Amino acid sequence: MKYFAIVLSIALLVAASFLVQQSHASYVSIMQPFNYTATQNSTVYLGKDGPGQTFYVTISASTSNGAGVVDKYGWNKLVVSGLPQGWIAQNSSLYNPTLSAKITPSPNAQNGTYSFNITAVNIGNYSGLGSVRVKANINITPNVFKLVVLPSSISQNAGQGDNISVSINNTGVSDSLFAITISGLPAKNITSTVIALHGTKRTFKYPILVNEPGVYDLNILVRSTASPLLVYKDANITLTAKATIANDYAAIGNGIDAFPITYEPLYAIMYLIERILVR
């Protein structure tokens, strides 16, 4: 009976020691695309990303050893492995306080959830930390941002520009470049390229100008520059451009050759007035 008690005590001590070691096991502090603490063989869901859109996984170099002692530079490299076919990764640089791996899904990736591994490495195991491997899941979908364009209708004098507000709410994990364009105007308009960081909402001003009076049905198109054929949204607005005295005089001035010569001095004066008004 005494022998059994001794064996039981030893077993309990071993179990307690194992639990203490487990409680002080090395961990990986993920910083981007969000904050999360991962341990050996755990699984983390990173979020949504569009096909072809590059994103980063960043971890802190800090961790702890089996005794619970914190090592600020325990991890020296972050390695990506097991990527789906057609995906590209760039492992982190060495010996930095934060370690970032760059990952680009295939531009032809179909919708769905994909898995790969990220491994924090203690090079040469000089701190006795070994490595910690984490399984990462990410959802590939074109629905990685929300778009709001305001106002939905604009009334302005022809020749006098106005701005609309284009709000991009980036719900994906990529810090994406977006191109804003417009169609439906008689003249060529600018393409505005903006950046929307992941997990943020930003509002941009986009200028609209038309010189001819009329009612125009416009389409605002916002595309990801990394995946313009798949990751995009659009919105429709109506522009009413009103005629002004200056517009009328300008039209007369531009059409002066069509009038009889006896009226040319009068129209020339009106055209001159128009030029003064628009200065």
Describe the structure.
This protein is an alpha+beta fold and 279 residues long. It folds into three domains: 25-140, Immunoglobulin-like, CATH 2.60.40; 145-242, Immunoglobulins (Immunoglobulin-like); 245-277, no CATH class. It contains three helices and 19 strands. Helix 2 (245-254) packs across helix 3.
Q: Which characteristics define this entry?
A:
Immunoglobulin-like, five-stranded mixed sheet, 3 domains, five-stranded antiparallel sheet, alpha+beta, single chain, 279 residues, 44% strand
> For the record, what CATH class of the largest domain applies?
Mainly Beta
Say how many strands there are: 19
Q: What is the domain tally?
A: 3
The SSE order reads: HEEEEEEEEEEEEEEEEEEEHH
Principal-axes geometry comes out as: elongated
Sum this structure up briefly.
This protein is about 15% helix and about 45% strand. The protein is α+β, with helices and mostly antiparallel strands.
